[in-house]
User: Which sequence fits this backbone?
C-alpha cells in the first residue's frame, strides 16, 4: 500500500518535473522569439536611419566624393567597423581602374592611418584585390580574413593595422559599376545577408547621386561646348575673354590677342554639297585649326598654356591667345591657320578647297568688354574679306571710324529714301552720225541738302549691301519711265527718245522683277520698246540660265537691254549671243585711252566688230574729247555718251536741251 | 537588472548544486523567482540572492559573484556564439565588450543599463581595466573575464589596484592573460 503510494507519488513528481521542463522550454523559446523580433526591429530601425541619413545628405552634398565620404562615415558608424574606403571608376575597357577617393584627414590610430595611406596610393584593375573583384563582378564581396586571402595586395599593412574581415560592394549607375566601397573589421567577418541587403540599397542611392551629378556635368559641358566640334562655344569663349580682359586691366604687362576666322566659301560648299558635308568640313577644319594652335603655342613658350579655339557658330571660329609677347604671335598663328587650309578636304568623295579670312585684334587697343573685342575683330575679318579674302587683317582705329561712317551713311540713306531726297539726272546718248539726242541714261543722285549733291559712287555700294537698292532701283525706274512718257508727249519724234535705266544684281535676283517692271510700264503708259534696262556682266554670271529666262520674260513686255561696262568683267563670250541684247556699252576706260595707245583702239575695234556680227548697237561711254569722237566715228560707232555732249543734268535742263535748236557737234 | 542575469544565475546554481538549492535560495529571500530574460528586475533581488547563497555556502558574496561570472561564460558562448568566434584569444574579446557586445545587448534589450569599461595597454603588456558603476559588480566582471580566458584556453591573474568596495571612486584592475591555462 505504502509502496503503491510511493510509486504514485514519484510518478506524479516525474510528471510535474516533465511539465515544468516543458514550461521552461516554452518560456525559453518565447524569449528567443521575442529577442529575435526585438533585435530585427532594432536593426531595421538602424538601417532606415542609415538610409535616411545617406539619402538626406545626397540632396545637400555638392560633390560625388563628398557623398561617398559621408556614406563611408555613416556605414562605419552603423557597423562599428573601424575603416572604410571609396573608389571611383576611371576609364573603361582594359584600362579601367578604381582610384581611391582621397580620405578626409581624420584622427585614426597609427596603424589604421598607415593602412589608409597605403590604400590612397593604390589603383585597382578589374579582378585585382577586394575592390577590383567587386568591379569585375558587379557584386558584393566578403573576405573573412584579409591577412589570409590570396588576392589581397594590402595584406601586410592590414595585419599591421589589426584588420581582419572585409566587405565591399558596388555603386551602380545604369549597368555600370561607377564606384566601390570597402570596409574593414578588426575581427573576422562572415557574409551578413541583412547587412549586404542594406548596402545594396546604399549602393543604389549613391549610384543615383553619381548619375545625377554626371547628368549635371554633361549639361554644364554642353552649355559651354559646341556639339559638332566639341570646341568651346560662344558662351565659354566670352567667359574666358572676359577673364583675360579683367587680367589685362589689372596687369598692364599682360597682353592677349583674339583672332576671328571665317571660311570664305562655306556657303557655297554647304549649298552645293549639303549640310552634312558642310558639317564634316567644319569638323575637319576645327581639327586642323586646333593642331595649328597647338603647334603655335608649343613654339611660343615651352610650358604652353594653349589658347582657346572656339566655334561661335556656322563657319565662324575664334581664338583667344593668352599672354602674348607681341602682336606678331597672333599674325604668326593666322599664317599657320591659313597654311592648314592649303591641303584639300575630302568631302563626299570630292576634294574641296577652302580659305579663311581672319581678323586680329590685340589687347593693347584697350578693351573694357568682350563685346568690344568681338566687334573690332569682326570688323578686321570683314576688312580681310573685302581686301580679297584668304588673308588676315589686324584691327586698327581707322576700321572703326570707317565702320561708324558707314553705319551713319546707312541711317542717312534710309532717311533719305523716306524724305524723298533722291533725284534722277539724265545724260544724253547722242547719235554720232546725226549728232541728235537719241535718248538718255537715268542716273540717281542724292540731294542731301540744297547745295550738296551726292553721287552714286559714294552710296550705291551701301544700298546694295543693305538691300535699300531694291527700293531705290524701283523708284528710279518709275521716275525715269514717267519722265520719258512726258517727253514723248512733249517732244514727239519719228524715232522716239529712249531711256536707259540701271538694274542692279540685287534687283535681278528678285523673283517678282518681271511683274514690277510690267506694272511700272502700265502705270506710266510709256512705250516699253523705248526703255532699255542696263545690266552688268556680273548680273548674268551667277546663273546664266536664270538670267536668260528673266531677260526673255522682260523682252516679252517689250523692253530692251544693254550690257554696261562691257570689257571690264569676265565677258563670257560663250553665251553673249544667247542673251537678248540690244546694246553694248563700251566701258569708259577703253574710250579714255583710245587716242593714247593702239592696244585700246584695237580692243574697241574688236568689240565693235563683235557687236556688229551679233546685230547689237554700241554706245561709247565717257566720250569726252574731239579726238575720241573722231576715232569712234572712224570705227563706225553708232552712239556716244559723255561730257563731250553733256554731263548728267536734271529733267528741267534736258527739256531746255530738247527745246533748243539741233545741237551742232563740233 | 535584466532578467537574463537571473536566468543565468539560476542555471549555474542549478547545474552546480541542484534545483533544491535554487529553491532554497528563493525560500530564504522570499522572492518569487519568476524571471524572464526580456524583463527588468530590481538590483536588490541579485543582492538578496547573493547574500542568501553566501550564508548557505558559507562563502563571501564577492566570491559567489566571481564564480557566477566565470560559470556563466560557457552558457553565454552557447547562446551567442558569434561574439566568441570572431576572436582567437581572450584579450580582443574582452576589448570588444564596449564596441560590440554592449551595443548588441542594447539591440535585444532597449534601454539596458550596461557599464562602460576603460581599457588601456600597460607597458608591461598587461591590460588595465577601469570600471565604475553604482552596482559595484567589479567581481562579476572579473568572473566574466576568467570565464572568457578559460573559453580561449588561457588563464588570467588580476591585481585589483583600486576598488569601489574599498572606498575608491572607481575600480582599477590590472589583468594579465597567460596562454594555455586550464579550462
Assistant:
Amino acid at each position: 500500500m505504502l509502496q503503491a503510494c510511493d510509486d504514485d507519488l514519484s510518478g506524479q513528481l516525474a510528471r510535474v518535473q516533465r511539465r515544468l521542463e516543458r514550461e521552461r522550454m516554452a518560456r525559453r523559446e518565447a524569449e528567443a522569439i521575442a529577442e529575435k523580433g526585438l533585435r530585427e526591429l532594432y536593426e531595421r530601425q538602424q538601417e532606415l536611419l542609415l538610409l535616411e541619413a545617406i539619402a538626406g545628405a545626397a540632396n545637400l552634398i555638392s560633390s560625388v566624393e563628398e557623398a561617398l565620404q559621408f556614406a563611408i562615415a555613416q556605414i562605419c558608424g552603423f557597423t562599428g567597423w573601424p575603416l572604410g574606403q571609396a573608389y571611383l571608376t576611371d576609364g573603361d575597357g582594359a584600362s579601367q581602374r578604381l582610384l581611391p577617393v582621397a580620405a578626409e584627414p581624420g584622427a585614426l590610430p597609427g596603424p589604421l592611418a598607415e593602412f589608409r595611406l597605403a590604400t590612397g596610393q593604390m589603383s585597382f584593375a578589374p579582378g585585382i584585390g577586394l575592390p577590383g573583384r567587386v568591379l569585375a563582378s558587379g557584386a558584393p564581396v566578403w573576405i573573412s580574413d584579409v591577412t589570409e586571402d590570396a588576392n589581397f595586395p594590402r595584406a601586410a599593412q592590414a595585419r599591421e593595422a589589426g584588420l581582419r574581415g572585409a566587405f565591399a560592394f558596388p555603386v551602380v549607375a545604369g549597368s555600370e559599376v561607377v564606384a566601390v566601397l570597402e570596409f574593414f573589421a578588426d575581427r573576422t567577418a562572415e557574409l551578413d545577408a541583412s547587412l549586404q541587403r542594406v548596402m545594396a540599397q546604399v549602393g543604389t542611392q549613391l549610384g543615383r547621386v553619381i548619375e545625377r551629378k554626371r547628368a549635371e556635368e554633361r549639361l554644364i559641358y554642353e552649355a559651354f561646348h559646341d556639339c559638332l566640334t566639341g570646341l568651346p562655344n560662344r558662351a565659354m569663349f566670352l567667359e574666358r575673354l572676359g577673364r583675360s580682359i579683367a587680367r589685362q586691366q589689372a596687369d598692364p604687362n599682360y597682353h592677349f590677342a583674339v583672332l576671328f576666322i571665317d571660311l570664305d566659301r562655306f556657303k557655297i560648299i554647304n549649298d552645293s554639297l549639303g549640310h552634312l558635308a558642310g558639317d564634316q568640313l567644319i569638323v575637319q577644319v576645327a581639327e586642323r585649326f586646333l593642331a595649328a594652335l597647338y603647334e603655335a603655342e608649343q613654339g611660343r613658350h615651352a610650358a604652353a598654356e594653349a589658347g582657346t579655339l572656339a566655334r561661335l557658330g556656322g563657319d565662324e571660329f575664334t581664338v583667344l591667345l593668352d599672354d602674348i609677347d607681341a602682336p606678331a604671335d597672333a599674325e604668326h598663328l593666322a599664317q599657320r591657320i591659313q597654311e592648314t587650309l592649303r591641303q584639300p578636304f575630302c568631302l563626299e568623295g570630292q576634294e574641296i578647297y577652302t580659305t579663311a579670312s581672319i581678323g586680329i585684334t590685340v589687347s593693347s587697343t584697350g578693351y573694357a568688354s568682350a563685346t568690344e573685342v568681338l566687334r573690332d575683330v569682326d570688323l578686321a575679318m570683314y576688312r580681310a574679306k573685302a581686301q580679297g579674302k584668304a588673308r588676315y587683317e589686324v584691327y586698327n582705329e581707322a576700321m572703326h571710324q570707317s565702320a561708324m561712317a558707314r553705319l551713319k551713311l546707312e541711317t542717312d540713306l534710309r532717311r533719305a529714301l523716306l524724305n524723298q531726297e533722291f533725284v534722277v539726272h539724265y545724260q544724253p546718248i547722242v547719235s554720232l552720225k546725226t549728232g541728235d539726242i537719241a535718248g538718255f541714261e537715268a542716273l540717281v543722285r542724292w540731294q542731301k541738302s540744297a547745295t550738296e549733291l551726292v553721287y552714286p559712287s559714294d552710296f550705291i555700294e551701301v544700298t546694295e549691301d543693305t538691300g535699300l537698292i531694291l527700293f531705290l532701283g524701283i523708284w528710279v525706274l518709275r521716275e525715269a519711265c514717267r519722265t520719258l512718257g512726258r517727253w514723248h508727249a512733249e517732244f514727239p519724234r519719228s524715232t522716239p527718245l529712249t531711256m536707259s535705266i540701271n538694274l542692279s544684281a540685287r534687283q535681278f535676283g528678285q523673283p517678282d522683277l518681271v511683274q514690277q517692271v510690267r506694272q511700272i510700264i502700265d502705270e506710266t503708259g510709256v512705250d516699253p520698246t523705248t526703255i532699255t534696262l542696263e545690266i552688268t556682266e556680273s548680273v548674268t554670271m551667277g546663273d546664266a540660265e536664270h538670267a536668260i529666262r528673266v531677260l526673255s520674260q522682260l523682252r516679252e513686255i517689250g523692253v530692251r537691254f544693254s550690257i554696261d561696262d562691257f570689257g571690264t568683267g569676265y565677258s563670257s563670250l560663250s553665251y553673249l549671243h544667247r542673251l537678248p541684247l540690244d546694246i553694248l556699252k563700251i566701258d569708259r576706260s577703253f574710250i579714255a585711252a583710245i587716242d593714247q595707245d593702239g592696244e585700246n583702239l584695237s580692243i574697241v575695234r574688236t568689240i565693235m566688230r563683235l557687236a556688229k556680227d551679233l546685230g547689237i548697237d554700241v554706245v561709247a561711254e565717257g566720250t569726252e574729247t574731239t579726238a575720241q569722237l573722231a576715232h569712234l566715228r572712224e570705227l563706225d560707232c553708232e552712239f556716244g555718251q559723255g561730257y563731250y555732249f553733256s554731263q548728267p543734268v536734271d529733267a528741267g535742263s534736258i527739256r531746255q536741251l530738247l527745246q533748243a535748236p539741233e545741237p551742232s557737234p563740233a | 537588472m535584466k532578467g537574463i542575469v537571473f536566468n543565468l544565475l539560476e542555471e549555474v546554481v542549478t547545474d552546480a548544486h541542484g534545483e533544491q538549492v535554487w529553491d532554497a535560495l528563493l525560500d530564504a529571500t522570499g522572492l518569487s523567482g519568476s524571471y524572464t530574460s526580456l524583463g527588468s528586475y530590481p538590483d536588490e533581488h541579485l543582492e538578496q540572492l547573493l547574500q542568501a547563497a553566501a550564508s548557505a555556502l558559507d562563502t563571501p558574496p564577492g566570491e559567489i559573484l566571481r564564480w557566477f561570472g566565470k560559470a556563466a561564460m560557457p552558457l553565454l558562448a552557447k547562446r551567442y556564439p558569434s561574439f566568441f568566434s570572431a576572436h582567437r584569444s581572450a584579450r580582443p574579446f574582452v576589448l570588444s565588450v564596449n564596441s560590440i557586445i554592449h551595443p548588441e545587448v542594447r539591440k535585444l534589450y532597449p534601454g539596458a543599463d550596461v557599464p562602460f569599461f576603460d581599457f588601456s595597454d600597460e607597458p608591461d603588456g598587461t591590460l588595465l581595466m577601469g570600471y565604475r558603476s553604482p552596482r559595484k559588480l567589479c567581481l562579476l566582471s572579473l568572473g566574466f573575464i576568467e570565464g572568457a580566458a578559460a573559453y580561449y584556453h588561457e588563464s588570467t591573474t588580476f591585481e585589483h589596484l583600486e576598488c569601489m568596495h574599498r572606498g575608491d571612486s572607481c575600480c582599477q584592475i590590472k589583468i594579465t592573460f597567460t596562454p594555455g591555462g586550464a579550462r
Chain A is about 50% helix and 20% strand. Chain A touches chain B at residues 27, 31, 34-35, 38-39, 42-43, 80, 186-189 (CB under 8 Å).
